Automatic annotation (TrEMBL):
Gene3D superfamilies: 1.20.120.1220. This is Prepilin leader peptidase/N-methyltransferase. The lineage of its organism: Bacteria, Bacillati, Bacillota, Negativicutes, Selenomonadales. Keywords: Cell inner membrane, Cell membrane, Hydrolase, Membrane, Methyltransferase, Multifunctional enzyme, Protease, Transferase, Transmembrane, Transmembrane helix. Residues 101-202 form the Prepilin type IV endopeptidase peptidase domain. It is found in: Cell inner membrane; Cell membrane.
């Protein structure tokens, strides 16, 4: 029962995230403008905004003008719902669950904006950093020194990779990792980075193999960082222990 409630909560949050993903790069307000159809501008009623369900019932078309909506809305809603459910399965009821939910929501917004525009917005990163620092100071961990070292080390490492690959990483990626450091602390940001490089390597190869991207196309690294960060906040501590107890023994 709780599973279902968490899934629905995630999809409702996901519905708000699609608005953020669409409007933030265009400098539109995410709070004051009511939701409206992008084709006919009709203001959408609460009934039209029920995640997934309204999309399925209306077969992905606007009720008023009949033009198709992007399936993006339903995709982001579903992904958010499933990631929230996954987090709940691992973290359970605890104050950390709220932290993971907020972390995940920011990761989704950053991932989709980066995918669409090859851009990680400074204003999103600033909010992401501010909220993370506030939560960590409130809960007392990671400790403030840990946060600062992680931000500098993570950002520094990516700066190094950026210089090495001559622009394979953008400035946005470097700042993104620094903020992930603030959220995760040293150990978990290292896990996140390692995972991002592994998944990015495999993912990049697959994109080339299936010709989704050409050899000269730019593949944004932000989404891979986001995946690494999500796995790290859920499993990072376990991975570090597993490493210390088996590989480094
Ligand atoms: Zn319409």
């Amino acid at each position: 029962m709780f599973d279902f409630m968490i899934l629905v909560l995630g999809m409702i949050i996901g519905s708000f995230l699609t608005v953020c993903i669409y409007r933030l790069p265009q400098n539109q307000s995410i709070v004051t403008l009511p939701s409206h159809c992008l084709h006919c501008n009709t203001k959408l009623k609460a009934w039209d905004l029920i995640p997934i369900l309204s999309y399925l019932l209306l077969r992905g078309k606007c009720r008023y003008c009949g033009k198709p909506y992007s399936s993006r809305y339903a995709v982001v809603e579903l992904i958010t719902g499933l990631l929230f459910l996954w987090s709940y399965q691992i973290v359970g009821w605890s104050p950390d669950l709220l932290k993971v939910f907020i972390f995940t929501a920011f990761l989704i917004v950053i991932t989709f904006i980066d995918y669409d525009h090859q851009l990680i917005l400074d204003k999103v990163l600033l909010w992401f950093a501010g909220v993370g620092v506030a939560i960590n100071l409130g809960s007392g961990y990671p400790h403030i020194a840990d946060m600062i070292i992680a931000a500098l080390a993570g950002g520094g490492l990516l700066l190094f990779v950026a210089v090495l690959t001559r622009g394979g990483m953008g400035g946005g990626d470097i700042k993104f990792v620094a903020v992930l450091g603030l959220w995760l602390g040293v150990k978990l940001v290292i896990v996140a980075l390692l995972l991002a490089f592994i998944i990015g390597g495999i993912g990049g190869a697959l994109l080339l193999l299936f010709k989704v991207k050409g050899r000269k196309d730019f593949i944004p690294f932000g989404p891979f960082l986001a995946v690494g960060a999500f796995i790290s906040i859920l499993y990072g501590s376990k991975l570090v222990w597993w490493y210390l107890l088996t590989i480094a023994k």
